[in-house]
From TrEMBL, chain A:
This is N-methylglutamate dehydrogenase subunit B. One of its GO terms (molecular function) is sarcosine oxidase activity. Coiled coil: none annotated. One of its GO terms (biological process) is tetrahydrofolate metabolic process. It comes from the Bacteria. Pfam families: SoxD. It comes from Aquabacter spiritensis.
UniProtKB/TrEMBL annotation, chain B:
Its cofactor is FMN; FAD. This is Sarcosine oxidase subunit beta. SUPFAM superfamilies: FAD-linked reductases, C-terminal domain, FAD/NAD(P)-binding domain. One of its GO terms (molecular function) is nucleotide binding. It is found in: Cytoplasm. It comes from the Bacteria. Coiled coil: none annotated. Its main location: cytoplasm. Residues 36-80 form the Rhodanese domain. Its EC number is 1.5.3.24. GO terms for biological process: tetrahydrofolate metabolic process. It catalyses: sarcosine + O2 + H2O = formaldehyde + glycine + H2O2; sarcosine + (6S)-5,6,7,8-tetrahydrofolate + O2 = (6R)-5,10-methylene-5,6,7,8-tetrahydrofolate + glycine + H2O2. InterPro entries: FAD-dep_OxRdtase (IPR006076), FAD/NAD-bd_sf (IPR036188), Rhodanese-like_dom (IPR001763), SoxB (IPR006278).
């Protein structure tokens, strides 16, 4: 599997570290349902079989966090973007 | 119904041209209604059906399998059985599994080739020796066997290891002599045949495509072979669990990952039991055909592909070379991968769910094979009694909410690190 890094170009997956699903957003700790929201944020996953947006870190390259759109059934990469831009 | 296997049936068939054998289980078509449905015809699902019928007398049971039985992780693992866990929520469960393994063949009337050839976990530092001593003591508390052996004793057992590796010299190991291997396909076939003999329908090529809901409860499933209703429905589909619970809007604390295993060309006997490397994720045993069966880490990213990528192949082979340099002369025949249901604390879930009628068995990470008998036994108990047995009481679905995590490795809620 090779990942097209927006900065470095097409690079081997070995250069990247995986964090996981990019969808969960850190909840507001001051919200009244914060305990439930944090539980869901930390522990529950959609775990889709198909396209999934996920966070990868290009540690052996540009050291930037990426959001990679990847099909979990085939490992096909559908698109990549810097996390700072994709998650803002 | 198939007849009982014995030396007499062997002799009788030997003198009658082997024409007396009948299929080991019926090719059942799904009936419209059952007491209990088990989704997933792997080892865990079939064991669940068998213990439902045998221990709890619930025989109006069907196992629905989307492909052929044992074609998922039950046919893809590295066949290791052991009960060398640390935490109180885990160790008694796995020791019960080991006890069931020890009586399995007589119980099922099927040769599962259970071979207690020993599991040796190597340690390479003082700190790791202390940790393994603690683990060994914890094992003994549950009645399991464990021995902390020194470098010379390891050398006597496994002289082929690289004892004087510059960075990771072998200092000793934690040995569980009752651990070993079993023939994974035979476990599936044995449970299928034994369950079938008790009246369980084993329905193959029957994929679940939806759930039938009434008043919030699950009362049946839609399948590719028509609707099937049941009073209780148990999911034992490992890495595909999220695919099914997604249909119920039930989000779970699991991720599906990919784990690769390998087998080498056949050799004369060289590796006596199971050996694991303490300074990298690598384990090796030798099959009865002579091939070395080995594996390492998961790839580390979510996957449903049932095939891994080359970085992990390289990683596993590097660890192999560090532990057994002579492996470099061997040819690897095959590698393959399975779909791991990685949980947030590395421990499984056997529990009821918030949805009435639905029961859950998942989160086996990459250690589900050894658990097969106890998983089926405890899941059958939970289904039949509508409450967990003491052995699976800690495997609750809501433990992430209450904080009662069972994190053997101590890495937190990051499934790809377990």
């Amino acid at each position: 599997m090779r990942i097209p890094c927006p900065y470095c170009g097409l690079r081997d997956a070995h250069e990247f570290s995986y964090l996981g699903d990019a969808a969960p957003q850190r909840p507001d700790p001051a919200a009244p349902d914060a305990a439930d929201a944090f539980h869901d944020y930390v522990y529950l996953r959609d775990n889709p079989a198909g396209p999934m947006r996920e966070l990868w870190y290009h540690g052996a390259g540009c050291r930037r966090w990426l959001v990679v759109d990847r099909d979990t059934r085939t490992h096909a990469i559908l698109g990549t973007a810097f996390a700072t831009e994709a998650r803002s | 119904m198939s007849s009982r296997y014995s030396v007499f049936s062997l002799i009788a068939n030997a003198f009658s041209g082997q024409k007396g054998w009948t299929p080991a289980w019926r090719d059942a078509a799904p009936r419209p209604d059952y007491d209990v449905l088990v989704i997933g015809g792997g080892g865990h699902g079939l064991a669940t059906a068998y213990y439902l019928a045998k221990v709890h007398g619930i025989r109006n049971v069907a196992v629905l399998e989307k492909g052929t039985i044992g074609s998922g992780n039950a046919g893809r693992n590295t066949t290791i059985i052991r009960s060398n866990y640390l935490l109180p929520g885990n160790q008694p469960f796995y020791e019960w599994s080991m006890k069931l393994w020890e009586g399995l063949e007589q119980d099922l009337n099927y040769n599962a080739m259970v071979s207690q050839r020993g599991v040796l976990n190597l340690f390479h530092s003082d700190a790791q020796r202390d940790a393994f001593a603690r683990r060994g003591n914890s094992m003994r508390l549950s009645g399991a066997d464990s021995e902390l052996i020194d470098r010379d004793q390891v050398r006597a057992l496994a002289p082929f290891l690289n004892f004087d590796h510059a960075r990771f010299p072998i200092q000793g190991g934690l040995l569980q002599k009752r651990g070993g291997t079993a023939r994974h396909d035979a476990v599936v076939w044995g449970y299928a045949r034994a369950a079938d003999r008790l009246g369980v329908d084993i329905v193959q090529n029957c994929e679940v495509t939806g759930f039938i809901r009434e008043n919030g409860a699950v009362v049946g499933v839609e399948t590719t072979r028509g609707p099937v209703r049941a009073r209780k429905i148990g999911l034992a589909v490992a890495g595909s669990t999220s695919r099914l619970t997604r249909l119920l809007d039930l989000r779970l604390p699991i991720e599906s990952h990919v784990l690769t295993a390998f087998v080498s060309e056949g050799l004369k006997p060289v590796v006596p039991g199971v050996v694991t490397f303490g300074m990298g994720h690598f384990y090796v045993s030798q099959s009865d055909k002579g091939g070395l069966v080995f594996g390492g880490d998961i790839d580390g990213y979510n996957s449903y592909a049932q095939r891994g990528n080359l970085p992990v192949v390289e990683d596993v082979c590097e660890a192999a070379m560090a532990l057994m340099p002579q492996l470099g002369r061997l040819r690897v025949l095959r590698s393959w991968a399975g779909l791991m249901d990685m949980s947030m604390d590395g421990s499984p879930i056997i529990d009821r769910t918030p949805i009435p009628g639905l029961y859950l068995n998942c989160g086996w990470n990459y250690g589900g094979f050894k658990a097969t008998p106890a998983s089926g036994w405890c899941f059958a108990w939970t289904l039949a009694q509508d409450a967990p047995h003491a052995l699976n009481a800690a495997y609750r679905l809501d433990r992430s909410r209450t904080g009662h995590m069972i994190d053997e490795k101590g890495v937190g809620a990051q499934p790809n690190l377990h």
